[in-house]
Specification:
This protein is an alpha+beta fold. It folds into three domains: 58 residues; 70 residues, no CATH class; 90 residues, Endonuclease, Chain A. It is built from 13 helices and twelve strands. The strands form four sheets. A four-stranded mixed beta sheet has the order 9-10-11-12. A three-stranded antiparallel beta sheet has the order 1-3-2. It has a three-stranded mixed beta sheet with strand order 4-5-6, sandwiched between helices. The termini are far apart.
């Protein structure tokens, strides 16, 4: 065995008997060394710039990792392939599926290749030697195509396995939300329908409403904005459009308490007297009639801009 083959053996073993051209260069290999091994049948071309050691059997993981290595840094298994790698029940090892940064790669009939501009908003993890989207991002990607019922089952299985939780799913939803972003609407709907199985925190409620507004094409509001009247502190509001003097208050369970409501009312009056539009929404309103919430925020913005 040559020094090059010896040095590359751990890489091949770690990567399902695959090595990229970059791996080979790091081990001191040259284009000539690659050509000789291809000619003698010791290696075979697995993908553009990716080589497989002949002998060990090729597997589904081999066919998935080869195009990821070929696409370069940032590429990762995603969608149904990621679900299979994460061990989600009901997601078999089928057509290799990956996501690459926008502007890189090409369509290929034997693969499902997605391009994305927001891969940096999620974590890359490695499962069995393969770069893959993290569990919460995988669930968001699945929401693009699976039904509400199947998505809810997938979330429940992932929560039961402790590979994700409502907080991480809500945070992922908020960080990826934008108008037209596939999967956002369905994931928000499933979270709103099922997250009542535990108390929804104020911060969760705020992130879900931000996601809803972004999904609907509205600008992102400021979180926890401090309203001042000159040097006088008026209130800290949950969400705000400060330039339009619009405050959005979200009433979770704590606001059902009579003492909390007694504190809320003078605070709201102070905001109104300071010239602010104040909109209040409950969890039930968000869950059952999200479109009316969006309509009222949109109407408030229109009125404020025309004033």
């Amino acid at each position: 065995m040559s020094a090059l083959d010896h040095d590359l053996l751990p890489t091949f073993a770690r990567q399902h008997w695959l090595a990229s051209a970059a791996d080979i260069r790091r081990a001191g290999g040259t284009a000539g060394a690659i050509d000789r091994r291809l000619r003698t049948g010791r290696w075979e071309l697995a993908d553009r710039g990716v080589y497989r050691l002949v002998g060990p059997p090729a597997t589904w993981r081999t066919s998935l990792l080869a195009p990821i290595l070929s696409a370069g840094p940032g590429a990762r298994a995603s969608h149904f392939a990621a679900a299979a790698l994460h061990g989600f029940p009901g997601y078999p090892e089928t057509t290799p599926e990956l996501t690459i940064p926008r502007g890189r790669g090409r369509r290929r009939p034997e693969l499902r290749v997605h391009t994305s501009t927001d891969l940096d908003r999620s974590n890359l993890v490695v499962v069995d030697g393969i770069p893959v989207t993290d569990v919460a991002r995988t669930i968001l990607d699945l929401a693009r195509t699976v039904s509400d019922q199947r998505l809810a089952r997938t979330i429940e299985n992932a929560r039961r396995a402790k590979s994700t939780d409502w907080d991480r799913l809500i945070s992922t939803l908020a960080h990826h939300a934008r108008s037209g972003r596939p999967g956002i609407r369905r994931l928000r709907r499933v979270i709103a329908k099922n997250a009542h199985r535990r108390d929804v925190t104020d911060s969760d409620f705020e992130l879900l409403v931000i996601a809803l507004l972004l999904e609907s094409g509205l600008p992102e509001p400021v979180l926890h904005h401090r309203v001042m009247d000159g040097d006088r502190f008026v209130a800290e509001v949950d969400l705000a459009y400060p330039s339009l003097r619009i405050a959005i208050e979200l009433d979770g369970r704590v606001h059902l308490d009579e003492e909390v409501r007694e504190l809320d009312l003078p605070r709201q009056n102070d905001l109104l007297l300071s010239g602010w539009i104040v909109l209040r929404f409950t969890w039930r309103r968000f869950r059952e009639r999200p479109e009316s919430l969006v309509a009222e925020v949109r109407d408030a913005r229109r009125r404020a801009m025309s004033a």
